[in-house]
Specification:
- 61% of the residues lie in helices and 6% in strands.
- The protein has 51 helices and 15 strands.
- It has a five-stranded parallel β-sheet with strand order 5-4-6-7-8, sandwiched between helices.
- The chain is globular.
Length: 1322
Amino acid sequence: MGSTGSIVAGQDNGVEVNIPNEASGQENGRFDVSMKRHHSQPASNFLQMIQRQKHGDVVSRPTANIRSSGSFDPSSSIFALPEANDKIRKEYETFKFTKDQEIQALQRKEQKLDMENNRLRAELQALNRQCQKLRTERDIAMESSYEATERATALEQDRQKIQRQFKIFRETKESEIQALLHAKMQLESQLRGLRAHGVATGDDHNFSSNNVADVMDTSMRTTSEWWAAPESEATSLFGSYAQLRNGSHVGFAESAADIREPVRAESGPDLSLQSGDKQAWLTTSANLSSVLPLANTTEICGSTLLRCYLAATPDTVNDLKCFINHPNIRLLQNACEKEGYHLTLIHFTDLNDYNQEQDECISDDSEKSEIIKLAIKRTSMFFMFVGNAVGPYTDVECQEGHFNHPGWKSSYFYLKQSTNVENNSCTTLRKQIIGSNCKRVASYTESEDGCQLAVNNLMKAVQLEFGVKLSDLNTSNVSDSEQHEVSCIDEMPSDEHMEQLQREIISTCDKMLIGQPFGFEKCYERLDEVVTSPGPVPPLLISGTKGSGKTLLLSSWLQRLKNSSPDIIILQHFITGGKSIDSDPVIMLRRLLTQLRQHLPLANQPPVQTFSTFDVNRLRETLPRWLEQFTSRRNNRILLVVDSLDLLKDAQRNFHWLLDPLHVGVRVVISVGVDSCPEEWRHIPTLHLEPLSIQSVKLLLNHHAKSRDVSIPNTLERDVVSQCRTATTCHPLYVTLLSVVACSVCEKNISENFFQTCLRSRDPVELYQLLLRSVEHQFGSKITKTCLKPFFQFLACSRNGLSETEILSLLPDLTWCSWIAIHRQLSTFCVIKESVGLITVHNSEIAAVLYDRYVSNDVHLKRCRQKMLAWLQKRYEVVVTPRNSDMLLWLLHKEEDREKLGEVVRSPMVFHLMYTRGRACEIVRLWNYLNEEKRTIAQEYANALKLAESNASSGRSDDVTMNDVAQMYQSLGRFLKDLGLMEEAVAALQKSLEILENILDPDHPAVADSLHHLASVYSQWGKHSHAEPLYRQALELVECAVGRDHLRVAQELSALVRTARKTGRHEVADGMQQRMVSIMRKNSSLGSSNLKRLLKRAVRLEELTLGDETLETAQALNDLGVLYQMQNNLDNAESFFKRSLKTREKLVGISHADVAQSYHNLAAVYNEKKQFKKSAECMNAALKIRTEVMADDDVSIIATMKYLAFLYKKSKQYAKSAEMYKSILELTEQKHGPDSVPAANAMINLAVSQCQQEELDGALPLYEGALSIYRKNLGSKSPQVYQTLRNIAVLLYQKGEMAGAAVAYRQSMGGSDTKPLSTSRW
């Protein structure tokens, strides 16, 4: 057989198949397979089977008999096909049956599974329906639960509200019942007294038994106690500070309305002797002008600006420039800025009398003269270098600076000695200067000598005004162990700039309202109703448009309320703008809480940590709680007044508690804008400011005309009145602007065509636009482009204004001459104003106009801010001051420059300046903006202070000493205490204490401050055992330094009292509290802040008294006498006043206003010492001098006569007292008219004096005349009318006219007779 298989068909249809076996071991690799086909099997099937077997498709067949010969065995089983088929068939059938069974089983199983699936699907659908049902029920249940919770919350709120209302109702009714019972007892007592004396009474028995007893006693003694001014309102020789100290005040006038006149009277002549700015003195809240006449007491009055006018003759201009460019001048200005003050040097070296250059803002010489006069009038010091030539404006400067107003301001003249021939004008000028009694005249030869003299005088003046010395900046030259001023610690530093601004708002608005009828009388009545109404009263909302006078109304009403109701506790806050710091809710709430805390005795004051937090949520919860607790424990009513509350950040959320019922003793008055009022507040009772009436418009126009000394023609008046008839043109701002334009037309400064254009304006915005175009046209395109427009841009982009020095530094093309002219025009048009030494926009209306006109978009705004930032960063590199730190941080925040902002805010010096000036909340806000945690802040400052300490100890830093580092650590510790980081606070304060003990002495008074602050941290932490030893150590140091009766001692005792009570040692606390109360009574006139400022000033004054006998020395002696008198050290006060008097008599002669003032103060000391005759002699001497040097109708003369009359009465010289009161009455009638209220006051004083001499017949007509004047001017229900009727009742009772006395007294109590008696003339 070959290599391929062959198939041979035989007879038996057998087939022989040769299949190669590749797996066999045969050489040919082949094997033979013999197979026999069954007869019933087709050949083709057989071949297919063989083929399958060849390819391995059949592997389970029996093994064939393979032979090599190619034949096969017929008997082989493999070829038994029928049997195999049967077997296979059986197997197949079996297999088929099995499979059929399996299929059937599977089918049955499938049917079963289908049934199960259907059942499960039905169950699932049922479960889904049940789940949906349950879900619906759950939602319903949750909604019901939420509704129930809401109802429960509402019910709880209603329950609390009802509880508060019931509490208020109960307290109100209890107070009413007590008042009724007290009144009943008084009436019964009065009735018994009257019946006992046989006085017939009607149904209304309101006659005072006390007064009756006084009258009965007068029948047996020469004097009686007549009605006089309330002691709380009487004016003492020393003004308000001495009154507060003594508790019982000296009254110089017997009428309540008259007692305010001596204050204004004293402020007149004494102010003319001021070295400071008169206007700053007029804005003071304390009446110190009569005792501090020359020194502009900045700490008390709040002035932070000192302007000096520098002048020179043409040949001494170089000397003046040498003075201006002296290095110490710049250092002195930097030192002032570090303390928060502004030193401004005004000089007109740009005028053509100096360098022959023409200023574009000035048209002619007369205009320049007016600008010079205006500039000098705005200054408080005058420096002039006089050579051998006289310029065209030299006479104007000398006349305005000194000759026309001698003593008005401190004038310094420096006469240059030269061999050159003087002209006649110069010789006359020199003689006039020498003969003008000016004691500040010096001569020099070399320019450097004259410059140094002027620098020394300026440094001395700055030291007196601000307490700033040149060494304050160059701290490396100052010993760390220099004298420390012991004063009370400010537990929570306040922002002095903001406080001064708040005081200035009150004083400025009060001055604006004098003589200006704004039609506020009805508003005053509505506001008075809020205060006087019994029971709980909802807040009163004052609503009005911009410029309608909301701030003016509130400030003037508060001043009236303080004078009429001194017992009311007033908490006030004025918001000046959305960008200002006073619009921060944390600042505002902490300030209100501080005001409320100050009305509590030191022993009852809560710890500062109760409201020193920076969390506004806690603060807004604390204020209502404190108000309720305060009014429930004391009888005083509290009045909370907030102006422009809608400008406060999140006002609606932070003051939502105003909508809840407040305590019965709390009254709230807030003002908002009409458009910006929150919706929830619109249902509060509202007082809407109505437009001015036609009469008010006319009066306001005439007032402006009178103030500018012009006469308004009838045509202009009709035009103004006809224009001011709509809602937008009839409020004070628009009327004021139009009145200013009308006055300028009369002065020929504005054309009538422009005035007619202004009459077509529809609101203040349009009128302001016209005025700005007029200003631009007046100064020309060059000045407008280079100076005016940039100035407006910088002003609009600033936070709270710019100082004059900053303005001239930002605008290098602007000269002083141009600036004074621009300032005059813009101030006249109410575009800008001066506030706390800064130039700011006048109101919100002009602020919006300036932004729209000169900034207009964010691109210009950003460009302007970038310029200011570049300038500020240069200033920041030179010296770090509170002013540039505040401006820089604010601008970087607005520009969102996080990197640079982080660098500045991490500076320990910036942090120290911001914290000590009450800006800690702003620091917190900036750190929150930078997304930093509290502990990260603490670590950042700790690392920075370690570096500063290293530099200071090694001498690598000239700007920071170890003493500064200690103060920074102290500020950091206090700040961390407020943040609640007690461990870090203790570490910082311990470091401060360690540094102070090393560089000073462990017993130095400065160490007491660190001990106190460290103890306060332990006390707040609850570790009283650690705090008490530190408090006691601080107390010992303070007592050793200032004695046992200092206010600081009381402060340490107060802390020890709280600590003792916390630890349960109440007996120890009671003993210390008694001592503390005794100290407080001795120093009741001085608060801690006032004492700190006054002692700081005393140290300066003592330094100045060590020099030669000069006017400044005499003034320093006088001021020291005042300070010692305030501390009840009368012997030392008398000594200093006598020294001041002696020095003044020697320098200026016996007939000088300064000498009169020294006599005045000596009289005050003798009055305090009960030496009334000596006091009267000194006051008589003061009166004689003032009569000689002042006009006959001067108010100071009248005030001095009142003081003298009072002293005559106290010294029992009644005849002289009556004669003096007669003279006062004559002068008052000449000055104010016979039907004026001051004349009625004088009549009351004279009547009281005559009654004391038992001249009853002469006193009765005076009382009747005063009563008639009071009714005519003040109304029949005024307090003056009732008090006068009470005096008449007492007088008639003493005369024996019982029926007339009863009628008069009934009328004095507000009653009226149904059956008038014939003797009743009242």
